[in-house]
Amino acid sequence: MKRVLIIGSGFIGQRLGQALREAGLTATLSSRHRPEGLGDAAWLGLDASRPGAIAQAVAATGAQAVVLVHGPSDITGCEQAPEAAMALHAGIATRLCLEVPAVRKVLISTDNVFDGQAPGYDEAHAPCPANAYGRAKLAAEGVLLTADPGALIVRTSLVYGYEPRGPDRGWRNFFMVVADTVRAGQPVQAPVDHWNTPILVDDAAAVLARLVPGGTAGLLHLAGPDRASRFEWGQLIARSLGADPGLVRPVERAAGRYACRPPNACLRSLRLHQLPELSGLSISGLAAGAARLRPLLEVSPR
């Protein structure tokens, strides 16, 4: 398997495309609009909700595998438009199965398929979505697993990493928001009661680049080794940059944009370390992840 079509050209999709190319595969990103800063990466304009569009894209690229990492991924926005979220996530999964049943199918899903009442969740836990985004992703999971027993569903925890500024970047990942704010000497709020197992996007992409062309199927959880509240993590980010950790101000999850998230958005895996194709790979903890990102931040404008 040498050719992969990635439906979604955002933060995770771009890093995955890069990792696949570094592994010797041909990866084509696709989305409605070409994202800023894509460089010379192969990209295809695609409205995946249009009938026949996925089949045409697969034919044009010769893709033997398709990865769904498309939006909408704004969890608060999905809560305000649940029907649209369901139509796009479950609807595009349905079109993928109908239009190109023979390709390898991989869905990047979410920790929001759980309600967050337990401290953490592995693949054996029964899902109970926390919000409209989680319900839409869970529906997409069901579509793929019902139609194709060989499909792979990868649920990720909070993915973070370096993202440059730009006029169309929108809301960036939590690490970058905290890093930019405290480097400017400004305070930033972080919930004390919202727990995650964050994973560095480069580590997630490295794992996925080995799994996408392989034969692993079913459910798989992909998360970092450290469980931390956003407040604790925010203070770690500040300290790693030599900034005042006191600039990270504690708030309650219900007080802001995280209100609709599960309180414990934490994943662990029963399968990940048993997969032979992942031999030799490791996933950074939060301190190591911050150290890996520091050189990029030091050359980035504040």
From TrEMBL:
It comes from the Bacteria. It holds the Pfam family RmlD_sub_bind. Residues 3-273 form the RmlD-like substrate binding domain. Coiled coil: none annotated. InterPro entries: NAD(P)-bd_dom_sf, RmlD-like-bd. PANTHER family: NAD(P)-BINDING ROSSMANN-FOLD SUPERFAMILY PROTEIN. This is dTDP-4-dehydrorhamnose reductase. It comes from Stigmatella aurantiaca.
